[in-house]
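Final report, results section. Input specification for complex C-07:
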Amino acid sequence: METELVTGVVLDADGAPACFTWRDALFLTTSRPVRWYSRSLWWQHAGQAHPGQGQNLVETEMWRLWAASPNDRYFFQLRHQMPDDSWEIEQAAP
Amino acid sequence: MSFTHLNVSSAFSAHYGVNRPEQLCAAASSMGCESLAITDRDGLYGAIKHIGACISRGIAPIVGVSLEVTADKSLGRVLILAHGNNSGRGWATLCRIISQAQERKGGKKDVSIKISDLAGFFKEETSCTILIGLESSLADAVLTSKTGARDLATMWREYFPAPAALAIEVVNHMTEPGKLGSAQHAKAMFDLAKTVGIPPVITNAVRYIEPDGALTADILDSARYLEPLGLFTPQPNAQAWLKPSHRMATLALEITEDTNESVALLRATELLAQKCSLDPIGDCGWNQPKTPEQSSLGVTENPFEVLWQRSHAAISLRYPGIKAAELATVQHRLSKELIAVNKLGFATYFLTVADVAQMIRDMRIRIAARGSGAGSLINYLLGISSVDPIEEGLLFERFLSTERSTLPDIDIDVESARRHEIYRAIFRRYGGKRVTLLSMQSTYRGRGAVRDGGMALGLDDQQVDEIAKNMWRFSAKNFRSEMSNKPELADFSKLTESDRKLNLLVDITQRLDRLPRHISMHPCGVILGNSRLLDLTPTEPSGMGLPMSQFDKDDMDPMGFLKLDVLGVRMQSAMAYTIKEIKRVKNVDLDLDKVARDDPAVYKMIRTTNTLGLFQIESPGQRELTGKHQPTKFNDLTMQISLFRPGPMKGNMIKPYLDGRHGFIQPDYMHPDLHDILKESYGVVVFHEQLMRIMQVMTGCSLARADEMRRQLGKPDKARIVQRYFKKAAAARDYTPAVVDRVWSILEGFGSFGFCKAHGAAFAVPTYHSAWLKTHYPTEFIAGLLTHDPGMYPRRLLLAEARRLGVQLLGIDVNYSTSQYVVQKIGKELGVRVSLGEISGISRPEMDRIICEQPYADVTDFYLRARPSRRTLERLALVGALDTIAGVSDEESIHNRSDLLVKVRQISSKAAPKIDKNQLAFDLTNLDQLPVGNAAPTKQQKLEAEMTVTGMDISEHQIQKFQQMLEEMGVVRASEVGSLRSNTEVLVAGVRIATQTPPMRSGKRVVFISLDDGSGIADATFFDEAQRRCSQLLFQNKLLLISGKTRRTGVRGVSILAENAWDLRQLWQQWEKRAS
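Structure output:
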């Protein structure tokens, strides 16, 4: 399955997404976002592990939040992928 | 308010923590922490390093341990932190809890403590706090059952009712909400703590300084579980790092969701941190020397008076018939030493070491002092050392200085085979409460790191093995850079370009570099303390069963422990065995210590450079140096041993010394006042002792002060102070600026290069002893060497040396061989009988049975009474060990060894002998006739059987087989290389017996290969270009042909500058093909 991205993410002072664009609609965060860190199985894909690369290989920042567009309100689980700084949708449910 | 981390695993939590205590401490102090804990798993392995680092950073040390606690079932791991500033009661309790948890349970290693036993340590006083956190069963219970969790917490409370005894540790690792280590989970722990009335504290359960370390932690987890990554549940993320105070405050707020509560939580944590801050001196006896109480030495009077009397009384023993003038010198020196010892309060220490030395001698075990201790006249008089420091020009101040207060090291060499016996005797003599063994931490080096890294990635064992084999002497840290330098890694380097996992392996290997892997018994250290020793160090069972301290040698000085190095030296065992054989065979009582050290025959033998089997001077480099140096007296041995050390070699001292000695250059003593000091080394400053005396003569300072300055020369900022002092004081004593500058330029660079003469002189004694035995009792000495195998070479080389010396080698024979190499009479001649132990796979009980039931009438008799396994029986037959009893040893016999083998296979195809020997004997006698008509094995087949079964060529040298080809090729014998002119093209062939890649001044690698061809040893040197041609052969092939040019290096020294090398077997196959 293609991973879907959200774009134009604007962060608040804590690094939490305050608003972003998904499927051409602008979403504003409406709940207190919860940050957690999941881990990745780096040994399955990494080709190197230089000093300094460890954190991004081992863990990924995850966010759980409710956000609303003018038409919809969704629960999102977002994956903040480093080092390319992209935001993947892991789960989006109304 | 700064935050204190109370839960920190250092790298000394083997296969768990990522950073060393010093690194953790530096990181904590740079982020403004005022105190820091270390809480390693199962022990205090890193605690002393942690305390030392805290002291130097000016932060308060906290020490605890992570231990598994059990009730009916496991309660998981908890932390136990020692309270501080209570005269060491917290520290002592912690030590004793750990020692108890480390005790074997039902003979098995299982580090854990029963909750009831743990509670026992809290009965009288609460001197520790238990932290129940993430790794406890309580943390799991909180997720599954609220009431279950409450019951568990209540149980803890009932076992530990005192308010300060317990705390609940809340940890927010920001894992997936609801899971272990999430904010919600931390909140549940926090709420539970409040409900049951156990104070909560917050930690981050730290495993690494930076999040980057999490990747290393993954690999360590794999090594701990012995499973590749992916086959176990890994850590949840990379959050277990040493977070700064503000982050910890944020985490606290996220847990409590209330500002006041989060402040209270942080404050409770700080309060506990304060309670647990240790006073290194008051709590751990930091830097306070501790020696056995004099009562345990059997001394009732003032120990200094006893030392004074004993050493004075010994003068007449050590210096019989001494003249008045010399006596005055001895007494003056002794008084000076005694004054220093008294001032430092070390009399008990000397009496202790003397007591141990005497005890060892009473056990009739050979003993020799090593190290700077040989510089002390007291040590010589008390029989601790056997070198006369006055005669050899050794200085007491190098050994013991009134400027330092740490206990000096006295190292004792004993027979390796009896080392454990000595340890047990020391435990008996001083009592288990005053003695423990010393431990050491082995750390990841190249090979181990690549193996564990490969395992973590799930790589094929054989592939990883192949890579590991080509990792020669470099640390894992430099793996990637070495890949482009080392020809033997070129193939691997190429593979990493296309193979993702192999490339990853390189980075992973580098990450493991120097991390502790496991603790083991130090090869020679014994800690002798006072009766409080077990309050100061935790212990665990060692491999030999005796308790071993969890501290290593670097922890001894800070803890003020007296460490006695009782080093097992195989050479001492070999010499003891030789002496025993001389007594048995020749009925001569030999006391090596009474042998004069100026026997010309001994030096003559050494000068031939056939130094194989001689202590300290048998390595290829020493052999080459022997050729150039040509020693003629005892001090020459001291010089030679000292010069061939990393320091003097890096300091380039050997060449000017040799040039001066052989009269190629006029020695430069720089100033007439220095002539006496530098005479022995032809103007080269080699020894610490020489530098100290130069300082003394030119500046008028004391020798103790001179030694202090010598130690400071290595540190640039301190060296400048020494320079100013030296120049000023020397000028004041009327030395001209030119002389002062010249001398200083030598002293300045000397710092790390010099060598302590006392070390060299102490080593020279067994060197001389071994040379004396080899000269006068070669047969017995070879038997000793073969039995105890003291050297660096494969044992088969000793057989070659025996043949070269004309010592008869007697093959393995079940009627005559024992578990050792025994000197036996064959007719009038003496020979050395090869040991049964050389048969591969033979077991100790098998050997014991064979020896016990000797002699045997025939093969059946042997089979029935000695009951060897079928495999052993066949192997014995293969190497001819049954020839005599089978009557096939003689050429005229109608049977031969092949007939015997047929019979042996018949016998062993039957079931193994059972209890009913008579019935079986009857069955077997039917087979008692040997078959006939099998082709007798050739010499070559016999030799190959020996090589397979024993790994050695016993009947003749394995090079013999190639002789015809080698002669055709014009290959030169090793013994003839020495007589060739320099720059002659040569070919040499032989068995590779040593490969060395010593560090070079240039940084480029040089490979030294030694070949043995039965006539002697040829040494070849491979530089860069030659290495590129054949480097894989150099590390892997046993039989080599080397081409190159001779290079004369001294009177007897010739080495070969190698150009190329070939596999001798391959050449042989080609040659045979062509011949046929």
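The mean pLDDT of chain A is 92. Chain A touches chain B at residues 34-39, 41-44, 46-55, 57-59, 62, 64 (CB under 8 Å). This concludes the modelling results for the funded period.
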